[in-house]
Amino acid sequence: MKQLCCPLNGLRNISEFLYGGEYHAKPDQISCSARDWAEHVFFDENNAGLVIEWWCHLPTSYWFLVERNTVSDEILRSFPCSDIYKQRDDSPASASRDKGGQGE
Amino acid sequence: MDQSPLTLVPGSLLRRSPLYRRHAETGASFRQVDDCAVPYRFRSHQEDTDMARQLGLVDLCGLTKVGYKGPGASLWLGQEGLLLPAEPNLAVLQPDGMLVARLSLDEFLVLRNLESDSSLICDMESAWSLDSAVQTYLLPRRDSHCWLAVVGAEARQMLSKICAINLHLDEFPNLKIAQTIIADLSVIIIRHDLGLTPCFYLLADVALTEYLWEVLQDAMDEFAGATVGLAALLTLKTLLVESSK
Amino acid sequence: MFDVPVDESLISLSIRELQVPFGLLKYGLRKRYPAQHHFTPSKKLKQHYDVVIIGAGGHGSSIAYYLAKYHGITDVALIDKGYLGGGNTARNTAVIRSNYLTPESVSFYRDSVRLYQGLSNEFDYNIMMENRGQLTLAHSDAAIRNFRWRAEVNKHLGVRSELVDRKTIGEIVPSLSVTEDARFPILAGLWHEDGATARHDAVVWGYARGACQRGVELHQLTEAQGIDIDQGRVVGVHTNRGRIRCAAVVQAVAGASSTVGRMAGLQLPIHSFPLQAMVTQPYKPVLTPHVSSPHVHVYVHQTSRGEFVIGGGSDPYPLYGTRATLEQREKLSGAVLELFPFLAQARVLRQWAGTTDMTPDYSPVMGLSPIKNYYLDAGWGTWGFKATPICGKTMAELVATGRVPDLIKPFELERFYRFEQINEAGSTAASH
Question: What's the CA gap between C76 and C74, in Å, rounded?
Answer without folding.
Answer: 5
